[in-house]
Design brief:
The complex is a heterodimer of chains A (348) and B (306).
Chain A (H helix, E strand, L loop, with lengths): L1 E11 L5 E11 L3 E5 L6 H9 L6 E6 L2 E2 L10 E4 L11 H12 L3 H15 L14 H13 L5 E5 L7 H18 L2 E6 L2 H7 L2 E6 L2 E6 L1 H6 L4 H6 L6 E8 L2 E4 L2 E4 L7 E7 L5 E3 L5 E10 L4 E7 L2 E7 L9 E5 L5 E5 L7
Parallel strand pairs in A: 3-8, 3-9, 6-7, 7-8
Antiparallel strand pairs in A: 1-2, 1-4, 4-5, 9-10, 11-12, 11-14, 12-13, 14-20, 15-19, 16-17, 16-19, 17-18
Helix pairs in contact in A: 2-3, 2-4, 3-4
Chain B lengths: L1 H7 L2 H10 L4 H32 L3 H7 L9 H10 L10 H32 L5 H10 L9 H10 L6 H5 L6 H13 L2 H9 L4 H12 L1 H16 L3 H6 L8 H10 L9 H31 L4
Classes of the chains: A alpha+beta (348), B mainly alpha (306).
Bound molecules: adenosine-5'-triphosphate (ATP) and magnesium ion.
The site of magnesium ion has 2 residues of chain A, from helix 1.
Membrane topology (chain B): Multi-pass membrane protein
Main location (chain B): membrane
Function (chain B): Part of the ABC transporter complex UgpBAEC involved in sn-glycerol-3-phosphate (G3P) import. Probably responsible for the translocation of the substrate across the membrane.
């Protein structure tokens, strides 16, 4: 079953800005879909339209089988977790959790039960009588999640909920959100510009760029089969190398060097995509020679910034490094090469 | 910079440092200067009040003959009882107590009215997208350029035609529109993050509920601060009550002082002691309000709970 159906949605703000230009996605029951993209690509706008905080200019949003375009946020059966938590500072944690239920006219006994249940689930029981200002960032984050959980929504909406936390806590909370969402079995949309968050959390990733969907797919699909140069450079860190190259007769030529590839359909200028972590420094075999520049040691991996002809290239390596300013031979497996159309950027 | 920093040192460390190292010495002097400056300030501001109070405890003959006094006169109870309970005025109906009550009604009515009106105005301006909201705000704001004194004749005309002369509503209502209050509340509301409003919308709070459940509690300290300022302003109103009320039953303390002094025009020696006692009484409530709410007042002006 489909929880949420977004059909050809278009959003134009009153000032004329076109934030979303025709997006269609479905969110299945219990699925966690991550919207990822650079700043300003329309992720938040998309989410806020689902929440009912922004009107939909064109298209349809269908939640649990009914079109909700004209419903108020409170009538949509959604719950949202904001980046800055947006807790009510003058209310205790308990009141924060209960406020929405109270407004719905839920009986007090049921409110208490739900609040206690959520508090237990999130381990915030001991803070129930504190004010948000007396909590740490991580604890506030939990309260914000609690406020979403007690509503028993059809779908959770997260707008960069972890970006105010420090790196360590972020990793921990990320895992917790995923576990929680799994155990509740509630569908969720999670908006982030952090591709690591997207990769680790998502059942499916929706990559947005400039108000349009670039690609929808499982994390490993998006990583291993990027649909465009945009996705290729956005997903994965360090980003995929994209080199200007020319293809002819099963050979590819870059900066005066050429070698055989398994791509014969198309001749002419293309973009060759190579993931830094899939490149190897070799002592022999077929490959291309690069000029080694700066080296960066990140502990687990080492980055080699090199030049191939007049183009930059990054190689991630966990073994011995070549000397700086030396020459190195770089090889890769044939199925690790991605080919993109030089003008449209789409995958070939 | 350096001065401010040393002032913030906890006493224990600065004491220790003082005895051990030389450069600390000028710092203790700075603290001394601070106190001297403060003491001078207190003397200049409180001196006249103390003299007024002491003088009010003498009888009026002494005051008339010898001027202001700086000793205790011993007539304290008598004078203050007179001021509070003796019926006076032209009709012989008003007591000091009644005037105090009138002043309180004016002060509180004025403050509460201003807060209610300006909060609602700011709420409308900030949260409702009605046409020309910004323009309306600036129009309200420019009324700061038209204080009561400037528009007193038309104001009087309106109140008189509405038949509100000699009534509490006539005293209060024409004064409660407040550009200052609206401005303060507008700035405060604007500083409340948008997400909070959106969270409330998702939680199903309508406009009225949002106002009561979220905005009013968040504005608590702000309300307290504005209440204090407006209470004092209302309490000290002189010109407007003088025009609005001719019946002595509506006289406020501030006017009462003048009334006593007016006897000078007659043959009697004015009852300086009572006038001064009344002045002291008139000063007390605002001073008390400020002393009691001082902490909240400062909190409201400098920090926001968000
Ligand atoms: N209220 C608004 N009025 C006009 N334009 C807006 C409004 N909100 C957003 N926009 C524009 O719409 C586009 C998409 O904004 P949106 O907030 O959805 O981006 P985002 O993907 O969430 O970015 P970020 O990662 O920075 O949060 C931006 O170009 C932005 O300038
Ligand atoms: Mg955003």
């Amino acid at each position: 079953m489909t929880t949420l159906r977004i059909k050809d949605v278009f959003k134009r703000y009153p000032n004329g800005a076109e934030a979303v230009k025709g997006v269609s996605v479905d969110v299945e029951d219990g699925e966690l879909v991550v919207f990822v993209g650079p700043s300003g690509c329309g992720k938040s706008t998309m989410l806020r339209m689902v929440a009912g905080l922004e009107s939909v200019t064109e298209g349809e949003i269908e939640l649990a089988g009914r079109v909700v375009n004209d419903l108020e946020p409170a009538e949509r059966n959604i719950a949202m977790v904001f980046q800055n938590y947006a807790l009510y500072p003058h209310m205790s944690v308990r009141k924060n959790l209960a406020y929405g239920l109270k407004n719905r006219g839920t009986p007090q006994a049921e409110i208490d039960r739900k609040v206690d249940e959520a508090a237990k689930l999130l381990q915030i029981g001991e803070f129930l009588d504190r004010k948000p200002s007396q909590l740490s960032g991580g604890q506030r984050q939990r309260v914000a999640m609690g406020r979403a959980i007690v509503r028993d929504p059809a779908i959770f909406l997260f707008d960069e909920p972890l970006s105010n936390l420090d790196a360590k806590l972020r990793n921990q909370m990320r895992l917790e959100i995923k576990k929680l969402q799994r155990s509740l079995g509630t569908a969720a949309i999670y908006v982030t510009h952090d591709q690591v968050e997207a990769m680790t959390l998502a059942d499916r990733i929706v990559v947005l760029n400039n108000g349009l969907i670039e690609q929808v797919g499982k994390p490993h699909e998006v990583y291993s089969q990027p649909a465009s140069t945009f996705v290729a450079s956005f997903i994965g860190a360090p980003p995929m190398n994209l080199l200007d190259a020319t293809l002819s007769d099963g050979r590819i030529e870059i900066g005066g060097q050429s070698f055989a590839v398994q791509q014969t359909q198309k001749a002419g200028p293309i973009k060759l995509g190579l993931r830094p972590e899939r490149l190897q420094v070799a002592s022999g075999g077929e490959g291309f020679r690069v000029e080694v520049g700066v080296l960066e040691d990140l502990g687990a991996t080492r980055l080699i910034h090199a030049r191939l002809g007049d183009q930059d290239l990054t190689i991630a390596q966990d073994s011995e490094l070549p000397e700086p300013s030396s020459e190195a031979l770089i090889t890769f497996r044939h199925d690790d090469a991605h080919f993109f159309d030089a003008s449209s950027g789409r995958r070939i | 910079m350096a001065i401010a920093d040393t002032d913030r040192l906890p006493p224990a460390t600065s004491d220790k440092a003082k005895t051990k190292t030389k450069p600390q010495k000028p710092r203790s002097n700075i603290r001394l200067y601070d106190h001297i400056v403060l003491a001078i300030g207190v003397f200049i501001m409180m001196g006249p009040l103390v003299v007024a109070f002491l003088t009010s405890t003498h009888d009026y003959v002494t005051i008339h003959r010898e001027g202001m006094q700086i000793t205790w006169g011993g007539n304290f109870l008598e004078t203050y009882k007179n001021v509070l309970y003796q019926k006076g005025g032209f009709t012989g109906e008003v007591t000091g107590l009644l005037m105090t009550q009138n002043s309180l009604i004016l002060g509180i009515g004025f403050a509460v009215g201003k807060i209610v009106v300006s909060m609602l105005a700011a709420y409308a301006i900030v949260y409702f997208r009605f046409p020309f909201a910004t323009l309306s705000f600036w129009i309200i704001f420019t009324t700061l350029l038209l204080p009561l004194e400037v528009r007193i004749l038309p104001s009087y005309e309106v109140v008189q035609q509405l038949g509100m002369l000699n009534s509490y509503s006539g005293l209060i209502i024409p004064l409660i529109a407040s550009a200052t209050g609206t401005f303060f509340f507008r700035q405060f509301f604007k500083s409340i993050p948008n997400e909070m409003i959106e969270a409330a919308r998702i939680d199903g709070a309508g406009p009225v509920q949002f106002f009561w459940d979220i905005l009013v509690p968040l504005s608590k300290t702000m309300i307290a601060a504005i209440f204090i300022i407006m209470f004092v302003v209302g309490w000290n109103q002189y010109l407007w009550p003088t025009l609005m009320t001719t019946e002595e039953g509506y006289f406020t303390l501030v006017r009462g002082i003048r009334n006593i002094m007016q006897q000078m025009i007659g043959a009697d020696i004015p009852e300086y002691n009572e006038a001064l006692a009344m002045a002291v009484l008139a000063m007390l409530p605002p001073a008390l309000v400020i002393m009691i709410f001082q902490r909240m007042f400062i909190k409201g002006l400098v920090e926001q709970e968000k």
